[in-house]
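Intended use. Records like the one below are meant for learning the mapping from a protein sequence to its folded structure. Do not use them to infer anything beyond what is encoded.
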Amino acid sequence: ESLKDYIKIITKTSSFIVHTTLTSFTESLPQSKFIRIHRSSTVAIEKIDIIDGNCAYINKKPYKIGGSYRENFKKLLVNL
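Structure written out for the chain above:
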């Protein structure tokens, strides 16, 4: 999750605050395993439990799928 000049990385057991931008961090991740779904969120594809409308749910927490990211997200779903 983006926090201006920082990001919050959430794992199963903890979370971390790192001084970097979401864009640069997302670019360092493998594209086959992570996808940017909003200007504030990048998620692990395999962790998505439910897709409902404009939200992807991970562990019952909704993450909004932003308008400019929807098309790319739809392409990903078609290729799964």
